[in-house]
């Protein structure tokens, strides 16, 4: 266990923050042992940490605005297993520390379909159910079977099925009443072996496939198209610190959208019953933020939804304050309050 440890290399924003204590674990057994030791007199000294243990995966959905006065546990659980159900279905289980995109590529290499539209999303497998990650018409819930978790109160292993996870748009039980109560150790998906459901309804995918001259795409072709699209407009966190989409796309009542359309005739929206999902990137861009930089922080020049550590020297507080300015700007212009997708600490 390390003390006063820099977390900068472990988050995609690359901001400086220190953990009072830091440890990496490679198995559920190591995790339980670490949690037991965290209650020892050594850590509960005359100047005890004030926060509960924090679990870190790929660091792609977190922003540290200050040092963490407690124990940070980096989850490095690795491994992938399979169980063929029939000629067209296979269950694939990945440990929480597996890189998400590498896991998707693993499945594509086996010709397992269902995750191809989620290619190149940053982070690890273990955090994917937390916010029901999604892109281009696909969400985790579409192929999710279950996840194994550690109950932090009882120190017992539990299994959460699809219903118990209560997935919503970028939401799950792990972000609501289960927040801070469980650690996800592995996730199981049901994928197709043949007869794949190819999803190309999103215009950007169709256009990219046309540009590639592909008329009858395979799941591998869809993945390549998604990767090309994401790389064309989203910065690589290894080169420019970011956490991908910083804000959720807001969903507003249809009546409110119709009122806004009278004032902003080009406003974009995707109807869903009595509600409409409005692209946050469009709202932010209309407020003049696309490519705008203040100090060390900027809205990306190709995608306004992405906030970047422009100089590499930004603090977490600078990034948070920058996001607040965007939220206030959008609310003033459109009457819509954006919600941060990134976890703020």
Which features does this protein show?
four-stranded mixed sheet, 20 strands, 8 helices, five-stranded antiparallel sheet, alpha+beta
Can you describe what's shown?
The protein has 345 residues and is an alpha+beta fold. Helices cover 24% and strands 27% of the residues. It has 8 helices and 20 strands. The strands form 6 sheets. A 5-stranded antiparallel beta sheet has the order 6-7-12-10-11. Strands 1-2-5-3 form a 4-stranded mixed beta sheet. Strands 13-19-18-17 form a 4-stranded antiparallel beta sheet, covered by helices on one side. Helix 4 (203-211) crosses helix 5. The longest helix is centred in the C-terminal third of the chain and has 19 residues, at 316-334. It starts with a strand and ends with a strand. The model is unreliable at 41-46 (pLDDT under 50).
List the helices and strands and how they pair.
Blueprint: E1 2-6, E2 18-25, H1 28-37, E3 54-56, E4 62-63, E5 68-75, E6 80-86, E7 89-95, H2 100-109, E8 134-135, E9 138-139, E10 144-151, E11 157-161, H3 162-165, E12 182-192, H4 203-211, H5 219-233, E13 241-245, E14 251-253, H6 254-263, E15 270-272, E16 275-277, H7 280-286, E17 293-294, E18 297-299, E19 306-309, H8 316-334, E20 343-344
Parallel strand pairs: 2-5, 3-5, 4-20
Antiparallel strand pairs: 1-2, 6-7, 7-12, 8-9, 10-11, 10-12, 13-19, 14-16, 15-16, 17-18, 18-19
């Amino acid at each position: 266990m390390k003390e006063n440890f820099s977390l900068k290399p472990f988050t995609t924003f690359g901001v400086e923050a220190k953990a009072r204590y830091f440890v990496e674990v490679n198995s559920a057994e190591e995790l339980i042992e670490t949690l037991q030791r965290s209650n020892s007199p050594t850590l509960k000294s005359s100047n005890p940490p004030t926060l509960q243990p924090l679990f870190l995966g790929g660091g792609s959905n977190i922003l540290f605005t200050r040092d963490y006065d407690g124990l940070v546990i980096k989850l490095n659980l690795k491994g992938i297993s399979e169980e063929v159900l029939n000629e067209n279905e296979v269950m694939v289980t990945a440990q929480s520390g597996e890189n998400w995109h590498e896991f998707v590529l693993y499945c594509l290499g086996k010709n397992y379909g269902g995750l191809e539209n989620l290619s190149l999303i940053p982070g690890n497998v273990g955090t994917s159910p937390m916010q029901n990650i999604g892109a281009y018409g696909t969400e985790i819930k579409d192929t999710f079977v279950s996840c194994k978790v550690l109950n932090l109160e009882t120190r017992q292993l539990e299994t959460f099925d699809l219903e118990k996870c209560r997935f919503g748009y970028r939401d799950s039980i792990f972000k609501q009443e289960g927040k801070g109560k469980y650690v996800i150790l592995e996730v199981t998906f049901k994928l197709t072996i043949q007869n794949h459901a190819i999803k190309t309804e999103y215009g950007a995918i169709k256009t990219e496939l046309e540009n590639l001259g592909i008329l009858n795409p395979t799941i591998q072709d869809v993945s390549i198209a998604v990767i090309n699209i994401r790389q064309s407009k989203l910065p690589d966190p290894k080169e420019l610190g970011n956490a991908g989409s910083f804000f959720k796309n807001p969903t507003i009542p249809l009546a409110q959208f119709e009122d806004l359309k009278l004032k902003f005739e080009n406003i974009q929206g995707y109807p869903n019953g009595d509600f409409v999902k409005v692209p946050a990137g469009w709202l932010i861009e209309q407020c003049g933020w696309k490519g705008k930089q203040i100090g060390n922080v900027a809205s990306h020049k190709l995608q306004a939804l992405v906030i970047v550590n422009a100089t590499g020297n930004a603090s977490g507080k600078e990034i948070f304050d920058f996001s607040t300015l965007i939220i206030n700007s959008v609310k003033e212009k459109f009457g819509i309050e954006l919600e941060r997708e990134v976890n703020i600490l």
